[in-house]
Amino acid sequence: MDVPRATEDAVRGPVTGTSTGDAAETPDQARERGFSLPADLGRWTAPLVSAILIVVLWQLLIVVARLQPFVLPPPMTVWTAFQGNITALVANAWVTLLETLAGFFLSIAIAVPLAILISTSAPLRNGIYPFLLLGQSVPKQAIAPLLLLWLGYGDGPKVVLAFLTAFFPIVVNTAIGLQMTPPEMLDLGRLLSASRWRLFAKVTFPAAMPYFFAGLKVAISLAIVGAVIGEFIGADRGLGQMIVVATANAQTPLAFAAILMLSFLGIALFGLICLAERIICPWYNKG
Amino acid sequence: MIELRAVSKVYPTRKKGAVTALTDLDLRVADGEFVTLVGPSGCGKSTVLKLVAGLLAPTTGQVLIDGRPVTGPRREMGFVFQTPVLLPWRTVRENVLLPIEMLGQPVGPVERRADDLLHQVGLADFRKAHPWELSGGMQQRVGICRALIHDPAVLLMDEPFAALDAMTREALGIELLRIWEEQRKIVLFVTHSIPEAVLLADRVVVMTSRPGRIAGIAEIDLPRPREIDQEYDDRFKNAARRIRRLVEGGGVDEGQRLDAVASSPSHVIRPPSLVGDGGAAGGRS
Q1: What is the pLDDT of residue A40?
Q2: B126 is a domain residue
Q3: For chain A, which domains are there?
Q4: A287 touches chain B (CB under 8 A)
């Protein structure tokens, strides 16, 4: 066995360390390569450059079009408003965050079992999918006033709207992921008379995780949208309500500050999901 | 011993009606025998493996293992697929142990065997690596270990080296033979490659397509243990040439084809109707 191995290794040897040969690397080598300097530099500088560019264009637009601050406040004014109202912004962001997370986790709790049902039985799939699509085609804003009527001015309508908007991408992605089990694995399961549950737990479910997380990444942004729509329709707190009130009072810089806060919220939640994905399925995007 | 008796397999399809994948197939494989199946795409080679594994039921005819008809999936089968299909979230050793877990058996007592198998294919140092850290050839070695972990009586291999480069392919073939010499399982090995079929096999079953049937069976009398150098042996070349003619002569009428085969001095090729009647097939058990 030494002879054939040597042949193979001799062939592979020279390309080790290049992109085609990385399969033969040790884990350490792969790690080193992943943290090489130029790639990391680009990862941080590129977005920074675009951020500066956006701020410059923003300022330029105000100067060139002679816009009044209550129409479009300059970046520095927004930043000042952000700093000046940080306590209110954080308090309202906390409210919106809780509404968003409640809706988001509710949608996970319902979407995942539903996806399992859809993926395991064709009749269930045919029975459920059309109604999912039907539900998805209804604009969530359209039912927001009704939710207000049914659930009142409290957190209820916001949570439900966050749930409804986040729900669809999680169901669809998870259901697709659960159907991506390699057919060879299904054959292997049958050969070894593995129970459906065992096959599901050991192969099908873990294999679906990357799809599940892809769904979560889309869903989390949508959940924030849902919560904010809920706050637009009727609320006494939250970032959405803050934007409505600030705009009505011509406090445009404050409205922009709240929007800035919302985007921070969105980025943070998105980042947390990416982190969870890396911890739960570290194998994804490898090799 | 594996026996296929007058086996045919018809797949119903939506567009074209029924498609006959295999027809009138008779084959007998003795215990410890290494048999390769060659033939063009769509000749039903993979179907033969699935029939033997019990993953498919024959439309007519019977598949018997040790005299008993196959009625469903058989756990004494080890299956190596065309691609390794390793689970990326599991380490190499955990992948090898997967069949044990699927059987619902405790993994502990088998871990030693997993390590031994990995050692045999030169992957002892990669037990705790993940599949994405391995080359294609290494991954397929893991696939072979996984197929052998529950000590199956039969190893079914469906073009296992087709996705690998030629060098790796030969190396893996020789490694496979070495493992087989030790464990002496029945190996049914499907391939597109005639040299590979000849290098590995005791007998090469040549199949023709649409519908799949056996065109002839070539006995390979090259000495074992086999080495890659034997590919330059005249006996090897002759065998490969005969087999190529059989494959290419798929459309020629039966008599002509068998004439061409019979003229080979170095090995015996018999019409499929005679194959089931013992002879070399029974010799090894």
Answers
A1: 59
A2: no
A3: 2-32 (no CATH), 73-280 (1.10.3720.10)
A4: yes
